[in-house]
Amino acid sequence: xxxxxxxxxxxxxxxxxxxxxxxxxxxxxxxxxxxxxxxxxxxxxxxxxxxxxxxxxxxxxxxxxxxxxxxxxxxxxxxxxxxxxxxx
Amino acid sequence: xxxxxxxxxxxxxxxxxxxxxxxxxxxxxxxxxxxxxxxxxxxxxxxxxxxxxxxxxxxxxxxxxxxxxxxxxxxxxxxxxxxxxxxxxxxxxxxxxxxxxxxxxxxxxxxxxxxxxxxxxxxxxxxxxxxxxxxxxxxxxxxxxxxxxxxxxxxxxxxxxxxxxxxxxxxxxxxxxxxxxxxxxxxxxxxxxxxxxxxxxxxxxxxxxxxxxxxxxxxxxxxxxxxxxxx
Lengths: 88, 231
Fold this sequence. Notes:
Chain B: GO terms for molecular function: ATP binding; glutaminase activity; phosphoribosylformylglycinamidine synthase activity. The structure holds two protein chains of two kinds. Chain A has helices at about 20-30, 55-70, and strands spanning about 5-15, 45-50, 75-85. By secondary structure, chain A is α+β, with helices and mostly antiparallel strands. In chain A, strands 2-1-3 form a three-stranded antiparallel sheet, with helices on one face. In chain A, about 10% of the residues are buried. Chain B has one domain (about 5-230): 3-Layer(aba) Sandwich (Rossmann fold), CATH 3.40.50.880. Chain B has five helices and eleven strands. Chain B starts with a strand and ends with a helix. Classes of the chains: A alpha+beta, B alpha/beta. Chains A and B meet through helix 1 of A and loops of B.
């Protein structure tokens, strides 16, 4: 029996990679008066619904999808959260 | 001797390439739709500039899974020539034929300009018609052209003399002032280990007809043609 899952995937720039967009947003926030802001890094958030036979299989497929397409591991890291939606 | 120009949905420099290879140099050139898989008739595969698949997710990310890409990898493995310009360079890094990645320009802006570029070596087929250390002027047009590689990868590239083009001043100085997009070590173009795969951000095909400003890029295509027709 397959299970439907909801995945929340976060793709972030590796710390060694410059993020000029993050730097621009950071200075924008500071100009607005939020002087407490220390650093801003901008990444991507991807939501996905998928079905799999079990949680391990879902995680394995998500890892593959992230490694092959959703993230470029030369410049990015990824992580994901998985929650069960329903048994189908 | 035949050129092939890959056409992805969103490519927009494909006809500029064939205008140079077929139109100016009179070399047989075939447009290759990204769904094709038989490219065995081609000697040089050119992946043109543009916005393949809308640059969705990352530049070149989705193009790397086009049906034609496996054939291009095979073509490269056989030692045949692959040239990626601009978006084509991004596709080549995404698919792993070239190391590193192209990220957002340091200054965030899309840059459409002419850049002075130093030719680092002329003992490869791509630059036979240039002098080593010659400074040429080529158009650049990109938002994500900042070359990045981690320390070890960069060392391997530099130690292997695999940087073919660097952004420089008109007198050939390599410094931050003459680095339009923040590329590490001013890198504008690199080759793979064998030297048969070249990726560069500048557009040699847009500098091949004097009527539209500059001919410094023509020598690259001429050099390829001469080398491959006399071989």
